[in-house]
Amino acid sequence: MTGVTRTTKEELDTGRLERRMLPYYTQDGLWDLFVGACAIAWGVLLRIDGMSFVGVVCGVAAALAMLLRQRITYPRVGYARFRSAGASRGVIAGLVGFGAACILVVLSSRTALAGVIRPYFPVWMGLAIGALIAVAGRAFNVRRFYLHGALIFLAGVAHQWGGVPLWLAVTVAGAIIVAVGMVVLVRFLRDNPKMDMEIHG
């Protein structure tokens, strides 16, 4: 019984620590830059009629964000991996949800729901993507992602009822998100100087 009690307590302590550390996963601003870069790419590709490449661009942006974390973040704050890998599952779930939502919206536009979705397609798409970004913010306890999600949604609204070209609205939203990410990154670099790995003795 003692062993079981100890194990349960350790698991609870680890889970509590993991929840407290989740915001640190986004403290460097790199995921903000990723979201903003994807939004800008979406807008530019809409402009040049190259939406078939949006997945490739976002994949490259994600790989670049992970590479930068290894070069910028880990040398400053270290690296920890929990057994539950909650953060990794959250990212994977978000990406899967993003893909599923996009597929759902596209398929719905060709079914009986087309009459409801097609006239307001940019709004529905903005709502779907914005909600997923907000859910990611909820999962990682990072409130600024609510702003990012709202900006993407408002891009669709600005196009639908404000007459703003969709590519421009999305690009502006992405630029604002990138600006937020840059502020967070600069603050992170200022507050977390690179650790000296040399051992003096």
Describe this structure in words.
- The protein is mainly alpha-helical and 201 residues long.
- The chain has helices spanning 2-21, 30-47, 54-77, 86-108, 114-117, 121-140, 144-162, 166-191.
- Helix 4 packs antiparallel against helix 6 and helix 6 (121-140) packs antiparallel against helix 7 (144-162).
- The termini are far apart.
In angstroms, what separates the terminal alpha carbons?
Answer: 45 Å
- Quick one: overall form? elongated
Secondary structure category: mainly alpha
Helix content: over 70%
How many extended strands?
0
- The average pLDDT score comes to 77
Order of helices and strands: HHHHHHHH
Strand content: under 5%
Radius of gyration: 20 Å
**Total number of helices:** 8
Indicate the topology.
Blueprint: H1 2-21, H2 30-47, H3 54-77, H4 86-108, H5 114-117, H6 121-140, H7 144-162, H8 166-191
Q: Short summary of the structure?
A:
This protein is mostly helical. The protein is 77% helix and 0% strand. Helix 7 packs antiparallel against helix 8.
